[in-house]
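Hi support team,

I've been running sequence recovery on a batch of backbones for a student project. Most finish fine, but this one hangs at about 90% for roughly twenty minutes before it completes. I'm not sure whether the input is malformed or the queue is just slow. I've pasted the structure tokens below so you can try to reproduce it. Let me know if you need the job ID as well.

Thanks,
M.K.
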């Protein structure tokens, strides 16, 4: 329907612009659509979680990602599960819950590899590498980050290359 299309459009536009009112409008509309609005709501929760993470509000980021993950799981939406699991892992890592972060990121990596999604695989590996660095496991961190870097280079994803190189430098410096 037109309302479902509008809810989906708002949820994606909210991500592109990181615009809180647009995200809230997409969420509210999604909530009125019942099962048809769940995908839009999942995207909005993922986006709001990422936004909260960038604002260093890791508790809110975790909460939003958990809500998005639940919806993506119900929908069997593999990309959404990968993405929310990675952002959830990022929030857990920043909160110092390194064991749980590693478990969540490991699940994201498995899903990404199963889907043969190179970008999501690189993203999961990058964050697993950062978590290994936070744990002081520099050898493992370097291995994960080098694999992430190779994949980002393969798909010519410049931002990912920058993330991976920066994280490799941080791991080396801390070691």
């Amino acid at each position: 329907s037109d309302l479902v299309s509008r809810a989906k459009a708002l949820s994606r536009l909210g991500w592109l612009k990181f615009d809180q009112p647009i995200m809230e409008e997409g969420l509210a509309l999604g909530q009125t659509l019942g099962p048809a609005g769940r995908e839009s709501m999942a995207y909005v929760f993922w986006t709001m979680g990422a936004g909260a993470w960038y604002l260093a509000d890791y508790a809110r980021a975790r909460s939003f990602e958990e809500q998005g993950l639940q919806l993506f799981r119900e929908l069997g939406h593999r990309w959404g599960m990968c993405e929310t699991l990675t952002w959830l892992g990022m929030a857990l890592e920043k909160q110092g819950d390194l064991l749980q972060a590693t478990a969540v990121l490991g699940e994201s990596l498995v899903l990404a590899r199963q889907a043969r999604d190179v970008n999501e695989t690189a993203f999961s590996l990058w964050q697993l590498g950062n978590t290994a660095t936070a744990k002081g496991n520099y050898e493992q961190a370097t291995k994960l980050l080098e694999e992430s870097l190779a994949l980002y280079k393969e798909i010519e994803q410049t931002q990912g290359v920058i993330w991976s190189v920066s994280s490799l430098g941080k791991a080396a410096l801390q070691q």
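--
Follow-up from support: It reproduced on our side and the slowdown came from queue contention, not your input. The mean pLDDT is 92. No action needed from you.
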